[in-house]
Design a protein that fits this description.
single chain; 358 residues; alpha/beta; 12% strand
Length: 358
Amino acid sequence: MSQRRGFIKKGLLAAASPLISASLIAEPEQQAIKAKKQHWIWINPNQKEDLAEIKKQFSAFKEAGIGGILFEADSEKHFREAKKLGLEAHRWNWTMNRGDKKLLQDHPEWYAISRDGKSCATHPPYVGYYRWLCPSKPEVLEFLMAEADQILSKDYVDGLHLDYIRFCDVVLPLNLWKQYNVDQRTELPEYDFCYCETCRSTFKAQTGKDPLDFKFPDEALSWRLFRYEAINRVVNQLATVAKKHNKWITAAVFPTPEVARRNVRQDWTNWDLNAVFPMIYHGFYQEGVQWIGDAVKEGVHFLHGKFPIYAGLFIPDFNNNMEDLEKGIRNAMNNGAAGISIFGSATPEVLNVLKSTL
């Protein structure tokens, strides 16, 4: 299990399908019309599996209505086997959260700085692998675009799936406050990013103000907007790379537009994507399965048909209750989701529920 999903276990968090146009950014109305109702799954490919095991697993996915796989690691044999079976094979890639040893060693200056002056390169918040890049630095954008180009240049990769495409969590889901011994009714400086010299000087040039001078930075609307737009710029530039390759770009995002903006400075309704995967992990927010539909409804409302939603569901949140899982999926789809994406064990029982909902 990846570190990303290991953190989830602890509580916190991370080419078109056969019947969807392969062009990158279609007109909003066309995107909505062409969105195939299908399911997806996030997996980390097991390099020890042989082709027979891979084929058996992926065949079961396809029979259950899963049309696309989001692979956390590059494994040519897994990607190609998925494509042989008519499944989409997308590379699921960490974007702003980068604990790469070489990157930390070579470019510690690229990392975000908290309001209390600590760098993610040396003082990661919450957990040791939370190492956030600053989206305002031109060098970071150049690095990410080159990486996207390298990933999408591979003929067996159908698209790029962005994860951790945001700032660090300034507010955790309510269910995690006790676990991390925090009270985040106000935004705490050690989790509030980014206050590096690049961000401060750029913002000051635009507004005449230094964000460190704000008495209540969580109420400074222009400073909040500045950070939304910093991530928007990264995503939309990465979208141009995907367009060059005529391949899809998608993203895993926080569950609703409002939660995403407030908790992690993520403005995903203004991104140039082919589809979005909101992580509607209801247990993290102490909500019931009905909230899955509410979250989808909010996203659909603000997207206005720009691109489809595939609702991300965290299987452990359902506590092996297949009736609740089916309710959650139907709540999502009845409120406008084109399908769902699952993270967790794809047991035969889970796959049977998926199959029954398409």
